[in-house]
Batch of 3 targets.
Target 1
Amino acid sequence: MIRWIIFIVFIFFVDFYAFQSIKTIAKNKVLYIFYWLFSIVVLGNVIYQLVTYSNSKGMPQATMFAFGLMILSVVPKVIAILVLFGEDVFRVIKGFSSCFSKSKSTPFFVDRREFVSKIALGLAAVPFVSIIYGMARGKYNYQVINHTLYFDDLPLAFDGFKITHISDIHSGSFDDAEKIAHGIDLINQQKSDVILFTGDIVNNTADEMDLWIPYFKKLEAKHGKFSVLGNHDYGEYARWKTSEEKALNFQAIKDIHPKIGFNLLLNQSIYLEKGNEKIALIGVENWGTRFKKAGDLQLASSKVAKGDFKILMSHDPSHWNAEVKLDAKNYHLTLSGHTHGMQFGIEIPGVKWSPVQYIYEQWAGIYSNVGRYINVNRGFGFLAFPGRVGIWPEITVITLKKK
C-alpha cells in the first residue's frame, strides 16, 4: 500500500509541475480540464490493469497498452520538468537578490518566463512523438545487424560460416501477424548456415505461442536451428494454482521448440560438422546474476574438449562476466539476449546509450575480452512497454572468419 501511495504522489507531482508550462502559455480552461482528465484516466487505467494482471497468468495486451500510455504521459513531462526546475532555480536566486534591492516594488518571486515554458514544451514534444512512433511502428522495425569476427583457431572448413542470432521472441506480446511474417522473411533472407535462438520464447505461458508456431516453423538454416531457455520460459512471473500446473506449462514451453524445428539444448552440447572438421555448440539453461540460475556451464560443456572451437548460448549476458570469461575451457563466442536494450535509448554514430547500461555491462552488440566475444542481441520481440524507441528489434548475422 505504501508503494502505491508513493507511486501516485510521484505521478501527481510530475503532472502538477509540468502543468505549470501549459498554464504559463495557454489561458484556456478547456485545455486544463483535458490535461488533468487525461492524466487521471491514464493513472487509473494503469492501476486497474496492474491489479487485474496480478490475478492472471500472462501479461494481457491491455496491460501493456496501459503501461505504454503511462510512459507516453510521464516521460515528456519529466523532460519538461528538467527545464522548469532550472527556471525555478533562477527565480529563487532572483527572489533572494530582490531582498537586497533598494526598489520596494521588486517582487520576491518573479513570474515564470513564457519563452522558458515554450522551450520545455518543445523539448517534451520530442519524446512524446518518439514514444508514439515506438508504439505504432518501432516495435516491428526489424534491423539486420552484421558482424564479422576473426579467430586464429577457427577450423578452416568453417571460414565464412554464417550464424543468424535471434533472441527474446516474447510471443505473448505480438499483435500484428503481417509484421511477424515480415520478420521471419528477413531472417530467412540472410541464408545463414545456422539459426541460434537464445531464449524467452513466451512471456509466461506456453499457449502464447500457439498462434505463431506456423510462422516460426518457416525458419530455415542449412546446418540446423538450435535454442536455449530464457528466464521468462520457466513461468516464474505468473500465479499458478498448483506446482503441477506450473510444471505442465514448463514442459509445454519446452515442447514448443521441436514444433518449430529447433533443437533445444538444456545444459547440453552438440557438434556442428562441415567437411572433416567440427565446432562445438553449447547451450545452458538460464543463468543470471539477478534471475533464475538453472544453467550449469560445467555440465553443458562436459563432453567438449578444451581445444575445440566453442560457441556458447546463454540467455543472460551477466553470465559472461560471472562465469564464462573465467572458465578455463575458453569459449570463443557467447550469444546472449535478455536486456532488450531496455527498448529505449539512443544509437547513432558516436553515441550508444540506454538506461540498461547502468545495470548490465554488456547490453547490446559485440563485446570482446582477450580475443573472445559476446554478442548481446537486442531482441526480436518486446515486453511490458508495447514499443521500442531508438533500440530496434534485431536480427544479428555473425560471419566467422579465420585470421
Target 2
Amino acid sequence: MRAPMRRADFHYELPPELIAQAPLPERSASRLLTLDGASGALADRQFADLPELLGPNDLLVFNDTRVVAARLFGAKPSGGRVEIFLERVVGIDLAWAQLRASKAIRPGLDIHTPGGSVLVHERVQGEAGDLWEIQTPGDVLAFFEAHGHVPLPPYIERAAVESDRERYQSIFAREPGAVAAPTASLHFDAGLIARLDAVGLRRATITLHVGAGTFQPLRVDEVSQHVMHAELYTVPPALVESVAATRAAGGRVVAVGTTVARALESAATGGALAIGHGETRLFITPGYAFRVVDALITNFHLPESTLLMLVAAYAGLDNVLAAYRHAVAQRYRFFSYGDAMWVTPAAGVRR
C-alpha cells in the first residue's frame, strides 16, 4: 500500500535572494528551464525560444482573468489604520474581504477610504482566513480599481508602484476578478505573440479568477487532508472548439500556467471538456490522471505549495524537485516576477 504523501515531500531549499522582487525590463527576456517529464532531462533556454518548442498545430491556452487593484487602505473613525483586501465580489456593492487592523474589527464599523465609506457587515468564514462582508459606495470592482493598490504577493517585500499596474497583469487580461496574476502569461509580449502567430500557432482563452487562497499554505502534514480553496472559472464555446480542432490536427493543448491547467481539468471531470462556468476545488496531486493538458508552461512555485504539487503530478515529483535544485544552482529567478519552465508529462499521467 502506498504511503500517504506528506507536505515535507514537496520541500526544497530556496535562497531568499532568488525570489524576484521586480519584473525584468522586457517580459519575454526571462529564462526558460525545460523539463521532459518522461525522461527527466533538463535544458537551460530563454523564454524567447518558446516557438522552437511548439508545433504548428499546437494550441496555447491563456487565462484572461484581470487582476483587481484589491488592496485598499482606510481608517476607523478613531483614526486607526485598516487594510482591506478584496477576496470575492458577492453583489454589485457587496464583497468578502480580509480586514487587518491593530484592534479588533466589529460589525457596523465605518471605514473611511479615499473613495468614501466602506461599511463592515458580518463575519464570514473564508479559506484564506476570516473574512468580512463589506459594502462599498457603488460598484465593488469600479471602487477598488479607482482607489485600490496592486495586490503584490506576500513574498514581494516592497510596496506596489505604478508600473506594477501594467506588469502584474498579462497582455491577455480582460475579465476582472482575480486578486493574483496568472504569472506564466506575464512572459508574453506583443513581439513574442507576433512570432507565434507567424508560424500559425493557435491561441485560445479560459477564465479562472485567482483567489487569495492560492497563497494559502498547507496546515496539515498529510497532503490528502488539505481542503483546496475555491476559484471561479468559465469555459467559452470557442475554447472547446479550438481544443477539438487541435486534437483533430494532431496538435497539443498547452496550458499557460497552473491556473489554466486547473481550469481545463476542472471542466473535464465528466470526461470531455465542457462549456460553462462554475466553482472548482480540484486539488491536483501526484496520482492524478490528466484529461486535457499535453504540455505546461509555468513559473517556479513556493515549497510545499499546492501549485508545486500540481506540477509534480504532471511531470513526476522526483523530476520536478531535481529541476528545482538545478534552477537554484543556476540562479534562476523564482515566483511571480521570476523565470519560467516548459514541462511535458511523465509517463502514465495522461488519461
Target 3
Amino acid sequence: MSLISETLERLADKNEGALVAYVTGGDPSVDLTNKIVLGLADGGADIVEIGIPFSDPIADGPTIQAAANRALKAKTNPAKILSLVGEVKRKRTVPVVLLTYYNPVYRMGLENFFESAARFGVDGVIVPDLPIEESLEYRKAADAHDVDTVFLAAPSTSDGRLKRIASQSSGFLYLASLFGVTGTRRHLDKNLPRLVRRTRRLADKLPVCVGFGISTPTHVATVLKAGANGAIVGSALVEIVARNINRKDLPELVTRSVRKLKAATHQS
C-alpha cells in the first residue's frame, strides 16, 4: 500500500477527511518553496501537492498561471522540483504529489522521470492533460517505480468513463468540482454534493478528493460532508504566497491558513 493510500485509510478510520494543499514549485524561488512546503506540513496538510511550473498550464486559472510565470522567471525546472521533494522528504513524512503537464514528463522520458521521482520520494503524480486513453506507457512506468497515478474526472464525465478512470488511477481520484480552470470561488456549485456522491459510488473503493474552487474551511467541510475523502486547496494558498512574497514570515502565514483549513476536516 502506498503512503497516499495509507494516509487516506488512516484518516478514514478516524472519520477525518484529508486536506491536500497545493503550491507552485519555485514560486517565487525553490528555496522559499521548500520553507512554504514545510509550513504546509506543519499546519496539518495531510498530502502536499507541488506544481511543476509550465508555460501553458491549460487547467489553471490566473492565480496559478501567474505563479508558474514567477517560477519560470526564477529558472525553476523539473529537476529542481524533484530535488526539492527530496529535501522535504528528509524533514517530513508527509506524502508528496507532483502536478505536471505531460510535456515536461515527455521531455525527460518516462523511465527517467519516474526513476527520479521515486528516488527523491515522490508518492504520486497528476498530469491534467494526459487522457486516460493515452496513458498506458505512463502508467506502466509509474507502476514500475511504485508511484501513484492520480487522474482527473470532470463534472461532465460519463458514468462509464468515470469507472474507467477510477480503475486506472491509484492513490485517489481527483474530482474537479466545476467546469473551467482552477481559481478561488466564493460559493460552491449547489449540485456539488450530488456530484461527489455519484463519483464516490462509481469510483468504488478508490478515495475521491475534490479540487477546483475549494477555497475556505466552509468549502472543505461541505465537500467532506458530501462524502469526499479529501479536499484539495490550491489557488487560495497560492494567493497568500503572491500577496506576501516579500514577508519573512510567509511560511508562518501559510501554516496558520492551513491549520484553519485542516480544522474543517474533522467530521462529527
